[in-house]
Amino acid sequence: METQGAQETSWLEAAERHIQEHLRGGEAEKELVTSVWLQCTRLPVSYSFTAISQLLALQRSPCVSLLGWGTEQFLQWSREGLGRRTESGGAPPTTLPRARLLLAGYITDLPDDGNREQDGNLYIQDASGCVPCEISQFDCSGLGSLYFFPCWTFIPTHQTGGYVEVLSPPIPVPKVHALVPVNSSLLTPVSAFLLLGDSSHPRGFRVAVIGKLSSVTSLVTIRSKTFFFFFLQHGKRTIPVIVHVPSKLFWFRVLAVGETYEVSSLSLSSLGGSPRRVFAVTSSSILALRPPLSPPFLSTPDMDNSEELTEPGESLAPDCGPQERVTGRRSKEAKTLTYKGVVTRVLNAPAGLYELDGALLLCTAYTQLQNGGRGMRVGARVEVCDSHLQQTPSPLFPSLVLSCCLRSRIQICDFSRLTAPCALFSGSGNLYLQLLFRYRLRLPEFLWACDVINKLQEKLCPRFVRQNCVTRAPSDGAQGPAEKLLFPTISTWPDGRRERDLQEEMVAEPHDCPLRQYSPLPPPWSLPPLSLVPSLVSSTQKLPGEESNRRLHWSHHSVRSRDLSPPQVLLGVLQASSSSGSLILKDQSSSLSCLVLPAPPISWISTSPPGPGFIFAPSQCCHLPHRSTW
């Protein structure tokens, strides 16, 4: 058995080899070992450095590394993580197992693929490879520097092999000195605003502006161009700044609302196809954190129209929560607010539907969720800024719905402590997004379409149809099964609706987007499992087509879809029975024997006028007057 001294010697030799092979060696060797040592009372001989390539290739399950933590501290951390989950179907997630791995690398905004430019993401890189990372606290002056990560989580994914969630601020090796822009004169938003209306400035004109960060929009990609806006404020005056230079897109990960920033070398720019002028970040711009500015003199109080909510049980109660303003008989105006909560369920990741705090529905479909929802795992605490609160837009979902437009921003405040998987999705071939944009759906309509698609999957997948056939939009633009089913209804809704002006949605005042106003929508129709159809029919009272023949002990009910609330649509796979010769309508829940008859049905079966509906006898025979195939 090795003595403590021998173990430390072996550990130092292994650390030296790792630094020489993967971290360029040099003076970083001593600095890195010192940084590790400072996290513990002694060298962590039970831990070992891991190369990023080994982490991606060998680590097949989620894990967490917490250097310097004692057993009791880890157990307390785990108990708090378990308290964030809610009971749902399937095996509940457990807390992350501990791994004794040390991670060090260079934080960069350049992906490992040399064919791609910066897209606003951050990566941890060493000589062996590169892994994407999610980090909530980072100083932009440290980009490209070597860091040691004392506390981090690794989450494997099918798409990229995995990514790292950085749980505590990384330690720079050596210490990073912040860049300080040198500006003899700084403009506040009050004086900078006047420049937006002046077009007489010479080409190459640059200014430096200092102000309080009031909001940050989503990071979006439109026509292969990635950009976002942020807004600097002083007093009542706010100016928009666009960030579209690839080397500055990582600022999206750094900016913190409420802090005061100085931004140098800003140019004046006009948005494409619009007379609106904004300040634009250039390749030479520098972002620096500054102390708060003194408030300007105000003759009248500065009223803030936004709200911040953190507790759904109290803040969103009907007697004290934000109330929508009725703008018509059915139309309401949603409230704009900031909310902090815990992801308790991932309801439908491709549709951007999440449950917060076991009570609220979060919809991210109207914005571009970064990295396909990376980090949005069960147990993560998130902050949703400038979201729209709609009350009871659809009876199919929770009564309180937070929805995000392009003006909104979603941040991970505290990463999940559970083994819950990361349900990543892609916008390419995404049926939900295709329906939303093609038919310009409002939120209540989108939620109903999501419910129909979900029920369609439950009825047919995977026994009769592959899930991809239902949830993926065809690459040739043709209608898939789900869209064919929805088309007769959703095609009637977009009349008179304007196409979204995405840039104006991000910067215009007053703000306008598809989520600002809404009308609650009862389900136009429902898609029941076939196992429930007999009970739905038997519960209908005073059916107009009821007939009975006591002598033959035979009876039937003629039921129109409109007799049920909501109207029901029968859907399944029609098959012929080899034993009885009858037709059978099947889904994964049950089957119904069918008679396919011309419309109107012959008089001895039904005297009611023809129309969509079904006829039931005690043998559960189903007549389909109108039928379609796809």
What's the SSE blueprint?
Elements: H1 4-22, H2 28-38, E1 48-49, H3 52-58, E2 63-66, H4 71-82, E3 101-108, E4 122-126, E5 129-135, E6 146-149, E7 151-155, E8 163-166, E9 171-172, H5 189-195, E10 207-216, E11 220-222, E12 225-234, E13 237-243, E14 260-270, E15 277-281, E16 287-290, E17 307-309, H6 312-315, E18 325-326, E19 332-333, E20 335-348, E21 353-356, E22 360-363, E23 381-391, E24 400-403, E25 409-414, H7 431-438, H8 443-460, H9 467-471, H10 481-490, H11 502-507, E26 517-518, H12 533-538, E27 547-549, E28 554-560, E29 573-576, E30 583-586, E31 591-595, E32 613-616, E33 621-623
Parallel strand pairs: 1-3, 5-8, 13-15, 17-20, 22-24, 31-33
Antiparallel strand pairs: 2-7, 3-4, 3-6, 4-5, 6-9, 7-8, 10-12, 10-14, 11-12, 12-13, 14-15, 14-16, 18-19, 19-26, 20-21, 20-23, 21-22, 23-24, 23-25, 27-28, 28-32, 29-30, 30-31
Radius of gyration: 30 Å
Q: What is the count of β-strands?
A: 33
Query: Which shape, going by the Cα principal axes?
Result: globular
How far apart the termini lie comes to 71 Å
Percent of residues in beta strands: 25-35%
The CATH C-level name of the largest domain is Mainly Beta
- The tally of domains stands at 4
Question: Which structural class best describes the helix and strand composition?
Answer: alpha+beta
Largest sheet: 9 strands, mixed
The poorly predicted ranges are 298-307, 310-315, 317-329, 543-548, 550-554, 601-613, 615-621
Summarize the model shown.
With 630 residues, this protein is of the alpha+beta class.
